[in-house]
Amino acid sequence: MRAIVYSQTGEPSVLHLVERDVPEPGPGEVRVKVVVSGVNPTDWKARAGDRPGRPAAFPEVVPNQDGAGVVDAVGDGVTGLEVGDRVWVLLAAHGRPSGTAQEYTVQPAERVVRLPEAASFDVGASLGVPAVTAHRALTVADGGPSRLGPGTLSGRTVLVAGGAGAVGHAAIQLARWSGARVVSTVSGPRKAALATAAGAHHVVNYREGDTADAIRSIAPDGVDVVVEVSPARNAGLNAKVVANHGTVAVYATDGGGELTLDVRTHFALNVRYQFLLLYTVGAEAIAAAAEDITRALEDGELGVGEESGLPITRFPLERAADAHAAVEAGTVGKVLVDVNASP
User: Fold this and answer.
1) DSSP assignment letter at 111
2) Helices 166-177 and 128-137: crossing angle, nearest 10°?
3) How far apart are CA 237 and CA 133, in angstroms?
4) What mean pLDDT is reported for the chain?
5) Maximum Cα interatomic distance, the chain, rounded to a whole number of Å
6) Comparing C-alpha atoms, which of 286, 284, 299, 301 is closest to residue 171?
7) The domain that contains 17 carries what CATH number?
8) Quick check: is 299 in a domain?
């Protein structure tokens, strides 16, 4: 089988195509024939490391956490998954050398989730890190729901920073599906159109006018949940628009790694800052997210493509390095790698 691997950290050029034997699943594992592999910022950051030229975590690492395909073989003790099942894969390369940038990947059964027939493989490969992160961000609010579904966020206002990104896109769709009023901030007209296509009720261009005033005009009592990609840059804005007992759910550090808060303002409003990292969030939270995301897919949510607010840029497997470079360069939407031409 064909696989993309790297042995040391560095630029996308460290990725190269090799031929490998098809792996066999062990007890509790399944083998997935990968149709599409998804690329996230976490994938290129893992490949780049803290500096180039360092040995990778394993002698050869296959990158990419997310993907979608078909179960091809099942190990002993696996229940709930069968050969032929359409599935999406998450955290494939976490603590393992076997990501989704290869024709077959063997994964623990808990990292493989059934993909409803109505959802395409492109949708499946776009879930994983973005959708599970978005689910977690929407379920950590003070007094809010621990699960998502129709009506669970009714009466709440959610502010999604960067609604044209993959996590922002998933957060908009999941929040709206759950009944929230959704506001998103963006940096320009095209991204505004994407956030609107994803389902945001209101979109605010933060480069035009007073962003806080614009958000307060939509939500006079403040926003209940902020899904935050840039906490350092947006701390002042969030302090002006967050509601009493509001929550700022932080999932990334775009715009700086140090955050300064006005203590008195946040005291007065009983604000909760909740930081979240998918790799350490725990199996229970991931399993809950997978169940709720599956329900959303069954309801026709979490679509991808320009018309759904998440444009797709795709590359063949042999150009996986270009796919990583595209994500690193900030390509808007989702970058996918076509692995197998057919399931």
Assistant:
1) G
2) 50
3) 22
4) 96
5) 61
6) 301
7) 3.90.180.10
8) no
